[in-house]
Protein backbone atom coordinates (compact mmCIF):
# COMPACT_ATOMS: atom_id res chain seq x y z
CA UNK A 1 0.00 0.00 0.00
CA UNK A 2 2.87 2.37 0.81
CA UNK A 3 5.95 2.91 -1.29
CA UNK A 4 8.71 1.15 0.61
CA UNK A 5 11.27 3.50 2.13
CA UNK A 6 14.85 2.25 2.51
CA UNK A 7 15.15 3.26 6.17
CA UNK A 8 13.12 5.88 7.98
CA UNK A 9 9.43 6.15 7.24
CA UNK A 10 9.27 9.86 6.61
CA UNK A 11 6.95 12.71 5.72
CA UNK A 12 9.89 15.13 5.89
CA UNK A 13 10.08 15.91 2.20
CA UNK A 14 10.82 19.48 1.18
CA UNK A 15 8.00 21.80 2.22
CA UNK A 16 8.92 24.66 -0.12
CA UNK A 17 5.46 23.78 -1.09
CA UNK A 18 2.40 24.68 -3.06
CA UNK A 19 4.35 26.71 -5.61
CA UNK A 20 3.08 24.53 -8.41
CA UNK A 21 -0.04 22.57 -7.68
CA UNK A 22 -0.65 21.32 -11.19
CA UNK A 23 0.30 17.87 -12.33
CA UNK A 24 -0.91 14.41 -11.51
CA UNK A 25 -1.52 13.21 -7.98
CA UNK A 26 0.30 10.14 -6.77
CA UNK A 27 -2.52 8.77 -4.68
CA UNK A 28 -3.10 5.28 -3.41
CA UNK A 29 -6.61 5.06 -2.08
CA UNK A 30 -7.57 2.73 0.72
CA UNK A 31 -11.36 2.63 0.83
CA UNK A 32 -12.97 0.85 3.73
CA UNK A 33 -16.39 -0.76 3.73
CA UNK A 34 -19.21 1.75 3.86
CA UNK A 35 -21.77 1.21 6.60
CA UNK A 36 -25.30 2.47 6.20
CA UNK A 37 -25.84 5.46 8.45
CA UNK A 38 -22.14 6.13 8.94
CA UNK A 39 -20.54 9.39 7.82
CA UNK A 40 -17.76 9.14 5.23
CA UNK A 41 -14.58 11.22 5.20
CA UNK A 42 -11.53 11.13 2.96
CA UNK A 43 -8.21 11.78 4.69
CA UNK A 44 -4.78 12.18 3.11
CA UNK A 45 -1.49 11.01 4.60
CA UNK A 46 2.12 10.71 3.58
CA UNK A 47 3.97 7.71 5.08
CA UNK A 48 5.04 8.45 8.66
CA UNK A 49 5.59 6.44 11.82
CA UNK A 50 3.65 8.97 13.90
CA UNK A 51 0.40 7.81 12.32
CA UNK A 52 0.64 4.31 13.82
CA UNK A 53 -2.45 4.79 16.09
CA UNK A 54 -4.52 5.65 13.01
CA UNK A 55 -3.34 2.50 11.22
CA UNK A 56 -4.30 0.46 14.28
CA UNK A 57 -7.72 2.12 14.48
CA UNK A 58 -8.34 1.30 10.83
CA UNK A 59 -7.19 -2.28 11.26
CA UNK A 60 -9.34 -2.85 14.34
CA UNK A 61 -12.43 -1.08 12.99
CA UNK A 62 -12.45 1.58 15.72
CA UNK A 63 -13.64 4.30 13.34
CA UNK A 64 -16.52 2.36 11.80
CA UNK A 65 -17.77 1.20 15.17
CA UNK A 66 -17.98 4.86 16.14
CA UNK A 67 -20.01 5.84 13.07
CA UNK A 68 -17.23 7.02 10.73
CA UNK A 69 -16.23 5.43 7.44
CA UNK A 70 -12.69 6.72 6.99
CA UNK A 71 -11.20 6.48 3.52
CA UNK A 72 -7.51 7.27 3.69
CA UNK A 73 -5.32 8.07 0.73
CA UNK A 74 -1.56 7.70 0.74
CA UNK A 75 0.26 10.39 -1.23
CA UNK A 76 3.75 10.33 -2.68
CA UNK A 77 4.57 13.82 -1.39
CA UNK A 78 3.10 16.55 0.83
CA UNK A 79 2.77 18.87 -2.18
CA UNK A 80 0.41 16.43 -3.91
CA UNK A 81 -1.59 15.92 -0.73
CA UNK A 82 -1.88 19.66 -0.11
CA UNK A 83 -3.19 20.11 -3.64
CA UNK A 84 -5.88 17.50 -3.05
CA UNK A 85 -6.90 19.16 0.22
CA UNK A 86 -7.06 22.59 -1.39
CA UNK A 87 -9.02 21.11 -4.29
CA UNK A 88 -11.70 19.62 -2.04
CA UNK A 89 -10.79 16.00 -2.70
CA UNK A 90 -10.03 15.47 0.99
CA UNK A 91 -11.91 16.41 4.13
CA UNK A 92 -8.77 16.14 6.26
CA UNK A 93 -5.07 15.35 6.25
CA UNK A 94 -2.05 14.69 8.39
CA UNK A 95 0.26 17.70 8.37
CA UNK A 96 3.19 19.39 10.05
CA UNK A 97 2.43 22.75 11.62
CA UNK A 98 4.17 24.74 8.90
CA UNK A 99 1.70 23.29 6.40
CA UNK A 100 -1.22 24.42 8.56
CA UNK A 101 -0.12 28.01 8.02
CA UNK A 102 0.88 27.78 4.36
CA UNK A 103 -2.43 26.12 3.50
CA UNK A 104 -4.35 28.83 5.32
CA UNK A 105 -2.34 31.49 3.51
CA UNK A 106 -3.54 29.96 0.25
CA UNK A 107 -7.19 30.05 1.22
CA UNK A 108 -7.82 26.76 2.99
CA UNK A 109 -10.17 27.12 5.96
CA UNK A 110 -9.28 24.29 8.31
CA UNK A 111 -8.83 23.35 11.94
CA UNK A 112 -6.47 21.14 13.90
CA UNK A 113 -8.55 18.61 15.81
CA UNK A 114 -5.77 16.38 17.17
CA UNK A 115 -1.99 16.29 17.62
CA UNK A 116 -0.50 13.05 16.32
CA UNK A 117 3.08 13.18 17.58
CA UNK A 118 6.06 15.32 18.43
CA UNK A 119 9.69 14.67 17.63
CA UNK A 120 11.50 13.43 20.74
CA UNK A 121 15.12 13.49 19.71
CA UNK A 122 14.71 12.21 16.16
CA UNK A 123 15.63 15.65 14.77
CA UNK A 124 18.98 17.16 15.65
CA UNK A 125 21.90 19.42 14.85
CA UNK A 126 25.46 18.10 14.60
CA UNK A 127 28.38 20.45 15.32
CA UNK A 128 32.13 20.22 15.70
CA UNK A 129 33.64 20.33 19.20
CA UNK A 130 35.16 23.74 18.43
CA UNK A 131 31.63 25.15 18.28
CA UNK A 132 30.66 25.59 21.92
CA UNK A 133 27.00 26.60 21.62
CA UNK A 134 24.27 27.69 19.22
CA UNK A 135 25.37 31.33 19.47
CA UNK A 136 28.63 30.25 17.82
CA UNK A 137 26.65 29.40 14.67
CA UNK A 138 26.80 33.09 13.73
CA UNK A 139 28.68 33.53 10.46
CA UNK A 140 28.88 29.78 9.86
CA UNK A 141 27.70 27.60 6.98
CA UNK A 142 25.05 25.02 7.89
CA UNK A 143 24.13 22.00 5.78
CA UNK A 144 20.34 21.61 5.81
CA UNK A 145 17.58 21.02 3.29
CA UNK A 146 16.10 24.44 2.57
CA UNK A 147 12.36 24.64 3.23
CA UNK A 148 12.21 21.27 4.96
CA UNK A 149 11.05 20.43 8.46
CA UNK A 150 14.75 20.33 9.40
CA UNK A 151 15.15 23.91 8.14
CA UNK A 152 12.22 25.14 10.25
CA UNK A 153 13.60 23.28 13.25
CA UNK A 154 16.95 25.03 12.77
CA UNK A 155 15.29 28.44 12.49
CA UNK A 156 13.45 27.91 15.77
CA UNK A 157 16.69 26.89 17.48
CA UNK A 158 18.45 29.96 16.08
CA UNK A 159 15.59 32.18 17.22
CA UNK A 160 15.82 30.76 20.74
CA UNK A 161 19.53 31.68 20.77
CA UNK A 162 18.83 35.22 19.56
CA UNK A 163 20.02 34.64 15.98
CA UNK A 164 18.18 35.37 12.74
CA UNK A 165 18.30 33.47 9.42
CA UNK A 166 20.61 36.20 8.10
CA UNK A 167 23.22 35.32 10.73
CA UNK A 168 24.04 31.99 9.05
CA UNK A 169 24.59 30.68 5.54
CA UNK A 170 22.38 27.80 4.45
CA UNK A 171 23.97 25.17 2.23
CA UNK A 172 21.00 23.39 0.66
CA UNK A 173 21.63 19.69 1.33
CA UNK A 174 19.29 16.73 1.72
CA UNK A 175 19.20 15.17 5.22
CA UNK A 176 21.19 12.07 4.28
CA UNK A 177 23.79 14.10 2.36
CA UNK A 178 24.08 16.65 5.20
CA UNK A 179 24.85 13.86 7.66
CA UNK A 180 27.34 12.28 5.24
CA UNK A 181 29.10 15.62 4.69
CA UNK A 182 29.42 16.14 8.44
CA UNK A 183 30.66 12.61 8.97
CA UNK A 184 33.27 13.06 6.23
CA UNK A 185 34.46 16.38 7.67
CA UNK A 186 33.20 18.51 4.78
CA UNK A 187 30.93 20.67 6.94
CA UNK A 188 31.09 21.80 10.56
CA UNK A 189 27.33 21.97 11.18
CA UNK A 190 24.56 19.78 9.78
CA UNK A 191 20.86 19.43 10.51
CA UNK A 192 19.30 16.03 9.93
CA UNK A 193 17.21 13.33 11.59
CA UNK A 194 17.15 9.66 12.54
CA UNK A 195 18.71 7.37 11.41
CA UNK A 196 21.21 9.67 9.66
CA UNK A 197 21.68 11.75 12.82
CA UNK A 198 22.85 8.90 15.04
CA UNK A 199 25.03 7.29 12.38
CA UNK A 200 26.93 10.50 11.63
CA UNK A 201 27.31 11.25 15.32
CA UNK A 202 28.75 7.81 16.03
CA UNK A 203 31.17 7.89 13.13
CA UNK A 204 32.58 11.40 13.58
CA UNK A 205 34.57 11.75 16.84
CA UNK A 206 35.21 15.48 16.37
CA UNK A 207 31.73 16.67 17.25
CA UNK A 208 28.43 15.76 18.84
CA UNK A 209 24.68 16.35 18.68
CA UNK A 210 24.70 19.88 20.02
CA UNK A 211 20.90 20.18 20.07
CA UNK A 212 18.02 17.82 19.42
CA UNK A 213 14.24 18.02 19.42
CA UNK A 214 13.94 16.59 22.94
CA UNK A 215 15.01 20.06 24.15
CA UNK A 216 12.20 21.78 22.24
CA UNK A 217 9.16 19.52 22.62
CA UNK A 218 6.87 21.39 20.21
CA UNK A 219 9.43 22.26 17.52
CA UNK A 220 8.40 19.46 15.16
CA UNK A 221 4.73 18.53 15.48
CA UNK A 222 2.42 16.42 13.31
CA UNK A 223 -1.29 17.13 13.50
CA UNK A 224 -4.59 16.05 11.98
CA UNK A 225 -6.44 18.94 10.39
CA UNK A 226 -9.89 18.98 8.77
CA UNK A 227 -11.75 21.48 6.64
CA UNK A 228 -13.84 23.81 8.80
CA UNK A 229 -17.12 23.18 6.86
CA UNK A 230 -16.79 19.43 7.49
CA UNK A 231 -15.93 19.93 11.17
CA UNK A 232 -18.94 22.20 11.69
CA UNK A 233 -21.33 19.99 9.70
CA UNK A 234 -20.23 16.67 11.19
CA UNK A 235 -18.99 17.09 14.76
CA UNK A 236 -20.03 13.52 15.55
CA UNK A 237 -17.71 12.25 12.80
CA UNK A 238 -14.87 14.33 14.23
CA UNK A 239 -15.51 12.88 17.66
CA UNK A 240 -15.46 9.38 16.17
CA UNK A 241 -12.13 10.17 14.51
CA UNK A 242 -10.55 11.39 17.74
CA UNK A 243 -12.03 8.51 19.73
CA UNK A 244 -10.67 6.05 17.15
CA UNK A 245 -7.15 7.44 17.48
CA UNK A 246 -7.45 7.29 21.27
CA UNK A 247 -8.50 3.64 21.03
CA UNK A 248 -5.55 2.99 18.70
CA UNK A 249 -3.17 4.52 21.22
CA UNK A 250 -4.62 2.40 24.02
CA UNK A 251 -4.43 -0.77 21.91
CA UNK A 252 -0.75 -0.07 21.21
CA UNK A 253 -0.14 -0.18 24.96
CA UNK A 254 -2.38 -3.11 25.87
CA UNK A 255 -1.89 -5.40 22.87
CA UNK A 256 1.50 -4.30 21.60
CA UNK A 257 2.44 -7.26 19.45
CA UNK A 258 -0.82 -7.27 17.50
CA UNK A 259 -0.70 -3.48 17.23
CA UNK A 260 2.84 -3.57 15.84
CA UNK A 261 1.83 -6.27 13.38
CA UNK A 262 -1.08 -4.15 12.11
CA UNK A 263 1.15 -1.10 11.67
CA UNK A 264 3.87 -3.21 10.05
CA UNK A 265 1.46 -4.38 7.35
CA UNK A 266 0.46 -0.83 6.52
CA UNK A 267 4.04 0.47 6.50
CA UNK A 268 5.51 -2.61 4.81
CA UNK A 269 7.99 -3.06 7.63
CA UNK A 270 8.59 -5.76 10.20
CA UNK A 271 7.07 -5.29 13.65
CA UNK A 272 10.60 -4.94 15.00
CA UNK A 273 11.31 -2.09 12.57
CA UNK A 274 8.10 -0.34 13.61
CA UNK A 275 9.15 -0.61 17.26
CA UNK A 276 12.53 0.91 16.44
CA UNK A 277 11.03 3.77 14.45
CA UNK A 278 8.62 4.60 17.29
CA UNK A 279 11.58 5.42 19.55
CA UNK A 280 12.21 8.65 17.63
CA UNK A 281 8.79 10.17 18.17
CA UNK A 282 6.48 10.79 21.09
CA UNK A 283 2.94 9.80 20.24
CA UNK A 284 0.64 12.40 21.75
CA UNK A 285 -1.67 11.09 24.48
CA UNK A 286 -5.18 12.40 24.95
CA UNK A 287 -4.03 14.15 28.12
CA UNK A 288 -1.22 15.89 26.24
CA UNK A 289 -3.65 16.78 23.47
CA UNK A 290 -5.84 18.55 26.00
CA UNK A 291 -2.88 20.63 27.15
CA UNK A 292 -1.57 21.35 23.65
CA UNK A 293 -4.94 22.27 22.17
CA UNK A 294 -6.92 23.72 25.07
CA UNK A 295 -4.59 25.17 27.70
CA UNK A 296 -3.40 28.55 26.42
CA UNK A 297 -1.28 29.04 29.54
CA UNK A 298 0.71 25.87 28.97
CA UNK A 299 4.28 26.01 27.67
CA UNK A 300 3.32 23.35 25.12
CA UNK A 301 0.14 25.08 23.90
CA UNK A 302 0.22 24.60 20.14
CA UNK A 303 -0.76 28.18 19.44
CA UNK A 304 2.63 29.33 20.71
CA UNK A 305 4.43 27.08 18.26
CA UNK A 306 2.19 28.21 15.42
CA UNK A 307 2.97 31.83 16.23
CA UNK A 308 6.71 31.15 16.19
CA UNK A 309 6.68 29.18 12.96
CA UNK A 310 4.35 31.76 11.39
CA UNK A 311 6.86 34.53 12.03
CA UNK A 312 9.62 32.42 10.49
CA UNK A 313 7.51 31.57 7.44
CA UNK A 314 6.70 35.23 6.90
CA UNK A 315 10.37 36.15 7.20
CA UNK A 316 11.18 33.53 4.59
CA UNK A 317 8.44 34.81 2.28
CA UNK A 318 6.41 31.59 2.45
CA UNK A 319 3.31 33.38 3.78
CA UNK A 320 2.28 36.99 3.29
CA UNK A 321 2.35 37.97 6.97
CA UNK A 322 2.58 36.35 10.40
CA UNK A 323 -0.82 35.10 11.60
CA UNK A 324 -2.60 37.46 13.95
CA UNK A 325 -5.01 34.90 15.43
CA UNK A 326 -3.45 31.44 15.66
CA UNK A 327 -6.18 30.19 17.98
CA UNK A 328 -8.55 30.00 15.00
CA UNK A 329 -6.52 27.06 13.67
CA UNK A 330 -7.11 25.01 16.83
CA UNK A 331 -10.35 23.23 17.70
CA UNK A 332 -10.03 21.52 21.11
CA UNK A 333 -13.67 20.50 21.55
CA UNK A 334 -13.06 16.86 20.63
CA UNK A 335 -10.30 16.25 23.19
CA UNK A 336 -11.74 18.07 26.24
Give the key terms.
336 residues, alpha/beta, D-Maltodextrin-Binding Protein, domain 2, 12 strands, 38% helix, globular
Summarize the structure.
The chain is α/β, with parallel strands linked by helices and 336 residues long.
How far apart, in Å, are the first and last alpha carbons?
34 Å
| Helix-strand string | EEHHEHEHEEEHEHEHEEHHHHEHH
CATH superfamily of the largest domain: Periplasmic binding protein-like II
Computed over alpha carbons, the radius of gyration is 19 Å
- In the sheet with the most strands, the strands line up as 1-3-2-4-11-5-12
Q: Could you describe the largest sheet, including whether it forms a barrel? A: 7 strands, mixed
What does this molecule look like?
- The chain has 336 residues and is of the alpha/beta class.
- The protein has 2 domains: 27-118 and 220-334, D-Maltodextrin-Binding Protein, domain 2, CATH 3.40.190.10; 123-215, Periplasmic binding protein-like II (D-Maltodextrin-Binding Protein, domain 2, 3-Layer(aba) Sandwich).
- It is 38% helix and 20% strand.
- The protein has helices at 52-60, 62-65, 78-86, 97-105, 149-160, 175-183, 196-203, 228-233, 235-254, 256-267, 271-278, 286-294, 302-315, and strands at residues 27-30, 39-45, 68-75, 92-96, 110-119, 123-127, 141-144, 169-172, 189-193, 208-212, 221-227, 281-283.
- The strands form 3 sheets. Strands 1-3-2-4-11-5-12 form a 7-stranded mixed beta sheet, with helices on both faces. The protein has a 3-stranded antiparallel beta sheet with strand order 9-6-10, with helices on both faces.
- α5 (149-160) links the parallel β7 (141-144) and β8.
- The model is unreliable at 1-8 and 13-28 (pLDDT under 50).
Amino acid sequence: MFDRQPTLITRRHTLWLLAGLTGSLAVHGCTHRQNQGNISAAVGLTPWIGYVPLYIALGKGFFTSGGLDLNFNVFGSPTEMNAAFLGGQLQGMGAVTSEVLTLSDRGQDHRIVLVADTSAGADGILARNSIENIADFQGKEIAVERGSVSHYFLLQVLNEAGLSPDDVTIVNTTPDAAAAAYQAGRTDIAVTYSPFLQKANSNQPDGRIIYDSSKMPTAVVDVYTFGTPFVESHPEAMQSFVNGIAAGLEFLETDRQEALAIAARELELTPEEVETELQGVKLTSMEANQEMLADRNSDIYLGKQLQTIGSLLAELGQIDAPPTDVDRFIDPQFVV
